[in-house]
Amino acid sequence: MNLGKTLKYAVAGLITAGILTVLFLCGQKASAAAKERTCSGVEVEFFGNDGAHFITGNDVKSYILKGYKNVSGMRIEEIDLKEIENVLDKKSAILKSEAYTTKDGVLHIMISQREPVVRLVCGSNGWYADDTGYIFPLQKNYTSRVPIVDGEIPLRIKADFMGIPSTAAERQWLDGILGLVEFLEKNRKWDDSIAQIHVQDKGRLTLVPRKGTERFDLGRPENFEKKFARIEKYYKFIAPAKEGKAYRYVNVSIDGQIYCR
Predict the structure, then answer these.
(1) Looking at the predicted structure, is the pLDDT value of residue 246 above 70?
(2) How would you write 186-254 as a 3-class SS string?
(3) How high is the pLDDT of residue 30?
(4) Nearest-CA neighbor of 135 among 96, 172, 169, 93?
(5) CB atoms < 10 A from the CB of 111, how many?
(6) Average pLDDT of 109-119?
């Protein structure tokens, strides 16, 4: 056997063993240091919603304190990030949360809030609904500028309700309202001219324009293209014939008809 080659392999083996030992000791030291790291603070960051915050950073910290525990001074490895996310995700205005820690001991919370598209008002109670039909209560810190639908809201929900309506009929009605909001958003002429969306008995809708004395009965929230086309015909052909004496009530809910009185 070549003695030089043997010594070469032996030296290489010793060097490799030495490196592995150093790495092991460094890993042990880093692991021990990690176990000793404590939470030095909580930082909350919001994304989405164009700066409209229903909740504040202090609200989020309060949710963690009350729903989880005081994380300040806790060892980082003992903080249950998943449980913190579960606590936050149960809050009505929060769509999704993400929790993580950094080497400096800071607990970071990323918050994505729900984005309402309509506000529902029934008596002293009020809710928001997002574009998926998820309903959640009004928030004390911020009021979103979205269309308001008030009156006899045909949803059997409590003041603190959050979630999707339970019955198919309620979901269908709410889907219709979301459809109306989408229609108005795409047709700015109508959106700018409507002052109020009021709900009558059995979920029927009445539109109150910003100008004039007419009240337009839309019926159930559906077939908006045809119904608004009938409103347009009213303004183009029927209203001018009255010479400024407009009708008070205009029903455009029936296909092919415009009923005025």
Answers:
(1) yes
(2) HCHHHHHHEEEEEECHHHCEEEEECCCCCEEEEECCCCHHHHHHHHHHHHHHHHHHCCCCCCCEEECCC
(3) 45
(4) 93
(5) 24
(6) 93
